């Protein structure tokens, strides 16, 4: 077994970062995979696993999708001629048909776009974004109650 083996995600690549808060705050109805336009120092930061998606979101401006608020920490050994901005807006690479569909859903139906996971696929960084609607407080409580009940059922089956 190799030392330092990375965790594999459902999509086949190794996971860089997950946004667990998105599942708690939103009903995610559909997921899309998209690429990211990154700079060299950002790729090095991703390889080191220095990324945080917790407070980030996706915004569509002028017919293009952008990841806003994601924090990619630069390595200390970054080049001297580059001034890294850890929270800059990063362009998302989507097909035109997917982009048109997302624009329609977010403008008309009241959906929002949240990043759910970032992973490697064939050596390229990919971002999974979810088309989501916000949960109300009672929805969050019901989800928590269901999760606790599932955990309790597992305990009961294990004992008896």
TrEMBL record:
Job description of the protein: Required for rescue of stalled ribosomes mediated by trans-translation. Binds to transfer-messenger RNA (tmRNA), required for stable association of tmRNA with ribosomes. tmRNA and SmpB together mimic tRNA shape, replacing the anticodon stem-loop with SmpB. tmRNA is encoded by the ssrA gene; the 2 termini fold to resemble tRNA(Ala) and it encodes a 'tag peptide', a short internal open reading frame. During trans-translation Ala-aminoacylated tmRNA acts like a tRNA, entering the A-site of stalled ribosomes, displacing the stalled mRNA.
Subcellular location: Cytoplasm
The encoding gene: smpB
Region feature (Disordered): 136-160
Stretches that traverse the bilayer: none
UniProt superkingdom: Bacteria
Alphabetical keyword list: Cytoplasm, RNA-binding
Family in the record: Belongs to the SmpB family.
UniProt protein name: SsrA-binding protein
Keyword Cell membrane attributed: no
InterPro entries, alphabetized: SmpB, SsrA-bd_prot
Source organism: Thiohalocapsa halophila
Compositional bias segments (type: Basic and acidic residues): 140-160
């Amino acid at each position: 077994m190799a030392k330092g083996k990375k965790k594999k995600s459902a999509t086949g690549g190794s996971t860089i970062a997950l946004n667990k808060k998105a599942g708690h705050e939103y009903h995610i109805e559909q997921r899309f995979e998209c690429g990211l336009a990154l700079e060299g120092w950002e790729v090095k930061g991703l390889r080191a696993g220095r990324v945080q998606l917790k407070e980030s979101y996706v915004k569509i401006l002028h017919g293009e999708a952008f990841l806003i608020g994601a924090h990619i920490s630069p390595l200390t050994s970054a080049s001297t001629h580059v001034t890294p901005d850890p929270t800059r807006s990063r362009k998302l690479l989507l097909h035109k048909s997917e982009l048109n569909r997302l624009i329609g859903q977010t403008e008309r139906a009241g959906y929002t776009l949240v990043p759910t996971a970032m992973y490697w696929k064939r050596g390229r960084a990919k971002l999974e974004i979810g088309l989501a609607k916000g949960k109300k407080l009672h929805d969050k409580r019901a989800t928590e109650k269901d999760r606790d009940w599932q955990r309790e059922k597992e305990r009961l089956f294990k004992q008896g």
